[in-house]
TrEMBL record:
<protein>
    <submittedName>
        <fullName>Nodulation protein U</fullName>
    </submittedName>
</protein>
<dbReference type="InterPro" id="IPR051338">
    <property type="entry name" value="NodU/CmcH_Carbamoyltrnsfr"/>
</dbReference>
<dbReference type="InterPro" id="IPR003696">
    <property type="entry name" value="Carbtransf_dom"/>
</dbReference>
<dbReference type="Pfam" id="PF16861">
    <property type="entry name" value="Carbam_trans_C"/>
</dbReference>
<dbReference type="InterPro" id="IPR031730">
    <property type="entry name" value="Carbam_trans_C"/>
</dbReference>
<feature type="domain" description="Carbamoyltransferase">
    <location>
        <begin position="100"/>
        <end position="310"/>
    </location>
</feature>
<dbReference type="InterPro" id="IPR038152">
    <property type="entry name" value="Carbam_trans_C_sf"/>
</dbReference>
<dbReference type="Pfam" id="PF02543">
    <property type="entry name" value="Carbam_trans_N"/>
</dbReference>
<comment type="similarity">
    <text>Belongs to the NodU/CmcH family.</text>
</comment>
<feature type="domain" description="Carbamoyltransferase C-terminal">
    <location>
        <begin position="354"/>
        <end position="518"/>
    </location>
</feature>
Length: 522
């Protein structure tokens, strides 16, 4: 059975699953299209070119006829896991008889984690979906049936990010304004918080935000001019202190319910945009409430097309688990050759690249298929040595982003516990860990944390070999790893864009599939 799946709205994408194996997962933003882009004719056409036959099932992730979750539903719609959350009907696809499947957006998040989790089938699990609109717990039984346990909070992701909007003088007043980047920026800024008691002003602001039903559509920031954080500036200490307490207040609502009611010790699967919050993930993993905690590499809406396709597979075959690889996007396109008058090219040798990095150079690394989800996991990466604060400054300048943004480490999994606490197995850069050495300054955030990705030869042999070569020179199998993309756009996926980016932003070299490229010395 070949299932072709689509996700409408922001973070649009197309996936294909055949007989339980993920063939590809394409995202509209990738290849330098705008971040969070909607489903486009371009990405649909590319997906069609990767199939050699017509699908048997079209899966359409439930969405809305508009932008906000409360607008009229499209297909199965946004909310629900019980009766009416799945639809199945006969249809046509370019003349072929197919089944048209849809399930709710809520189910898409649940099934993304369930279908991708190791050894999930035949065992009961807990599930948490928290995102812009949904904040709920579920129990999945041995057959994959989903039971809703508790609605903990409406709009947890929107409420989390709202504090940034409140403090940001550049964020406009008015209802309905939303910026997808605010949550990630706030996560970075909480590391700068002082450990101080909750003040009355902080409590009043946090309580007001959390008690709202729909914060984005319900409250304009100019209704909160009474708050001490109104346009206070996101780099002010009063905002940073409140941001950490705001984060803790949201997490505590969910943790308190889980600690009291989710007592079976089952594995927990986390999905939704809030599953990109590495601090919250780490707290759940360290809580001792669950046998294990799994977060897929595409927990936000970038995984929704896949989640609904998994749901379709379970509906028609009874089996949700899929065989997948995180590097499921398009191959890197070598659309031009580097100008030999400007660049030297030679076959990739890991030891030569490692020495180049050790000397302080920064490179763009683009090999094979791009990774699914928003995190660069070693196939579309900017890499650098991890030792100096100056490297952090330079990387953020290259990226064109704020200086408070941390740089993540990519580390050989077999060595990771030498330098990080809790990093034995973090393949998708979704948990905070503690750095245990002062030598990795470029990847150590202000509070001593790091958003570590661990790598093995089985998962990414090219990066693993490079890390081993870097260890042979420096003693550390760790590098700086940040995403290879123009500011405000998805991962670079063509040589022409890569060279343009490097020339505009000052990269020192490139790895393009199996070729190492450096500038000619004048």
């Amino acid at each position: 059975m070949l299932i072709l799946g689509f996700k409408e709205g922001h973070d649009g994408g197309v996936v294909a699953i055949e007989d339980g194996k993920l063939l590809f997962a394409l995202e509209a933003e990738k290849d330098s299209f705008p971040r969070y882009d909607r489903l486009t004719a371009e990405v649909i056409t590319r997906a069609a070119g990767m199939l050699d036959r017509q699908p048997d099932v079209i899966s359409l992730s439930g969405w809305v006829k508009g932008k906000h979750s409360v607008e009229p539903k499209l297909r199965a719609g946004y909310f629900g896991v019980g009766e009416g959350s799945v639809t199945d009907e006969a249809g046509k696809w370019f003349g072929k008889d197919v089944r048209i499947f849809s399930s709710t957006h809520e189910r898409s998040h649940i099934m993304t984690a369930y279908g991708m989790a190791p050894a999930a089938h035949g065992k009961a699990h807990y599930s948490l979906v928290w995102e812009g609109s949904i904040g709920d717990f579920y129990r999945i039984d041995e057959s994959g049936e989903v039971t809703h346990l508790k609605h903990v909070m409406t709009d947890p992701g929107n409420k989390y990010a709202y504090l940034f909007s409140l403090a940001d003088p550049n964020h406009p007043a008015g209802k309905g304004f939303f910026n997808y980047s605010h949550a990630g920026k706030q996560m970075a800024l909480t590391a700068f918080a002082e450990d101080t008691p909750m003040t009355k002003a902080e409590q009043e602001t946090i309580d007001f935000i959390l008690k709202q039903d729909g914060i984005v559509l319900g409250v304009s920031k100019d209704e909160m001019t009474w708050s001490h954080l109104y346009n206070a500036g996101v780099e002010s200490q009063e905002y940073r202190n409140a941001a950490a307490k705001h984060s803790n207040a949201i997490f505590d609502r969910f943790y308190s319910y889980a600690a009291k009611h989710m007592t079976e010790g089952l594995p927990l699967q986390i999905s939704g945009g809030c599953a990109l919050n590495c601090n919250w993930n780490a707290q759940f993993r360290q809580s001792g409430l669950f046998e294990s905690v799994f977060v897929p590499p595409c927990p936000n809406d970038s995984g929704a097309a896949l989640g609904t396709a998994i749901d379709a597979q379970r509906f028609y075959t009874g089996q949700a688990t899929i065989d997948w690889d995180v590097y499921a996007g398009e191959e890197f396109l070598e659309d031009i050759q580097p100008d030999p008058a400007k660049y030297e090219t030679r076959p990739l040798v890991a030891s030569e690249v490692a020495r180049f990095l050790e000397q302080g150079n920064i490179i763009g690394w683009a090999r094979g298929r791009y990774e699914m989800g928003p995190r660069a996991l070693g196939n579309r990466s900017i890499l650098a040595a991890p030792f100096t604060e100056e490297t952090t400054v330079r990387l953020n300048a290259i990226k064109g982003r704020e200086g408070y943004r941390p740089i993540a480490p990519i580390a050989l999994e077999s060595d990771a516990d030498k330098w990080f606490v809790g990093s034995v197995h973090d393949p998708y850069m979704l948990f905070f860990n503690r750095v245990t050495t002062e030598e990795l300054k470029a990847v150590t955030h202000f509070d001593g944390s790091a958003r570590t990705q661990t790598v093995t030869h089985e998962r990414n042999p090219g990066i693993a070999t490079l890390l081993e070569a870097f260890r042979d020179i420096t003693g550390f199998s760790v590098l700086c790893n940040t995403s290879l993309n123009f500011n405000g756009r998805g991962f670079i996926n063509a040589t022409s864009d890569l060279l343009q980016y490097g020339e505009e932003h000052g990269l020192d070299g490139y790895v393009i599939n199996d070729t190492f490229v450096t500038r000619r010395k004048s």
